């Protein structure tokens, strides 16, 4: 089991990373209309990378079917979000929702929350 100071340090690091820079690609800043831009954004955006690492860590901590099911669910939700973006469906509070998911998953990992 990890110590309380390690958990606090991990939580602080996750919060600082989440607050470091906005995810400009979600609001149409820069090149966002090519297949390459769409493919590279999840691999180059700090928000996506932070959440992907958090999902992988949390799934590995849970073990069992979560090792493949949770990352697959995350990718499925990213694909759904991409589809909504391509269809130009207005989704309110996208940026705050992304930030909230980064913080929430970071807390779940840092606190080693074990959900059923």
Any descriptors?
116 residues
- β content, as a range? under 5%
Number of strands: 0
Termini separation: 19 Å
So how many helices?
5
SSE diagram, text form:
Elements: H1 4-19, H2 35-44, H3 46-62, H4 66-86, H5 94-110
Walk me through what this model shows.
- This protein is mostly helical and 116 residues long.
- The chain contains 5 helices and no strands.
- The longest helix is centred in the middle third of the chain and has 21 residues, at 66-86.
- The mean pLDDT is 79.
Question: Can I get a quick summary?
Answer:
The protein is 70% helix and 0% strand.
